[in-house]
Amino acid sequence: MMIENAPKVHFTTKIFALVNKPDMILRIKEINNEYLYWDKLKYKKFPNLEPEELWSAVKMARAVNYKNINFGKYHFNYVTTDYIQKILHYFDMHIGGYMGAKNVVPDADKTRYLVSAIMEEAISSSQIEGANTTRKKAKEMLRKEVKPKTKSEQMIVNNYLTIKHITQNRNDDLTPERLLYIHGLISCDTLDDKKEEGAFRISDDVHVVNHIDGEVVHTPPGNKELEVLINDLCDFFNTDTKETFIHPILKAIVIHFMIGYIHPFTDGNGRTARALFYWFLLKKGYWLTEYLSISKIIQDTKSQYEKAYLYTEADVNDLTYFMTYHLKVMDKSFEALKEYIQLKQKENLQIASFIRIPNVNERQAQLLKIIFDEPESIFTVKEVENRFQVSKYTARTDLNTLVEMKFLEAIQVNKIKQNFVRSENFEALLVKYKIK
């Protein structure tokens, strides 16, 4: 997946004239809103203009608008294109602390949606890195708190616990020690060498490799540079400079990129990078981030994700490629959240018919809806605790009440544990209460 080298840029008199022509300004803006690299831009056709000349014109327009960020001895640039400014405003209105965001997630269902979103993110972030299991099986494992049996399952549990830790400690500053703690949570019992969990790499024999052909696509900075780079990253995370304003969402994206670029760990860098992205946005008040599964979209566009890294490095560390890709991912994730909520609200209408049954509360109605749709479902007290974020006593009471009402049957697993399954009377009770 090596990226084609771009031609050398020539800022000639012809290019200067082109960049200042009104029609060319508009065309360059269109190209920069997509933020095309040479491998795509070279197919754009312009009268009396060679692709190499167009590339030089585009690069000139970018160069005059570059903003700079430094980490250690490494220099990075980015451009706030019209697309970036527009989408950031949209996110400020809908994902940040404004009233518009308050209307996206219904108050009554916040807990349910949040639990589902955190599970979704934990599963997808792990699957990007190779975890091999179905979403249904993974969610069941998390809800029932079943001990993971494979490395894939352990990765998912680790991600889930990490995200929960971040949401509970969102206002903390980032320090090297806290970064190591996050990595320790994420990598627990998943690395070949236990000593590498929650530890910065001590070797330079670490490369980012294309798993298809084994090609080295990125060689990170040496391990002797890690202390300076990590300290700079923590400063970037914790402070806002007076001289330069960087939008919080763009800062979160840069933090995500830099963990991948620095590669401070032998493994688990991608999962750590995405965790820090969430942490920073939650710290900055973008509370709806908790409900977005960014990794689900990245998983579906993994090739573009990898290319966004490579384009940045191939084109003089221009972060705009990665920013543009990441903002599109956030947009898709937000749209997916809205669709998910609309679907769940339709389900709520079906749940309402179960709530009309005397002495059935909303949680019990949801359990009845689940077992109506999936007759083979098995509930446990622990699963109900996690699903609804209620106490063990409340979860047990909900299930035992449904047993007393003969909707469920309790099966003794051992001296302590019980499973709860659909009873033989379930269909007859639906007829009795006129539920279809």
Summarize, please:
The protein is mostly helical and 436 residues long. Helix content is 58%, strand content 6%.
Task: Describe this protein's structure.
By secondary structure, the protein is mainly alpha-helical. The protein has 20 helices and 7 strands. The chain has a 3-stranded antiparallel beta sheet with strand order 5-7-6. Strands 1-2 form a two-stranded antiparallel sheet. It has a two-stranded antiparallel ribbon with strand order 3-4. Strand 1 and strand 2 form a beta hairpin. Helix 18 (381-388) crosses helix 19 (392-404). The longest helix has 36 residues, at 320-355.
CATH superfamily of the largest domain: Fido-like domain
| CATH class placement of the largest domain | Mainly Alpha
Helix percentage = 55-70%
Number of helices: 20
Q: What is the CATH topology classification name of the largest domain?
A: Fic-like fold
| Structural Rg | 26 Å
SS content category = mainly alpha
InterPro entries: DeoR_HTH, Fido, Fido-like_dom_sf, Fido_containing, WH_DNA-bd_sf
Protein name: Fido domain-containing protein
Keywords: ATP-binding, Nucleotide-binding, Transcription, Transcription regulation
GO molecular function, one term: DNA-binding transcription factor activity
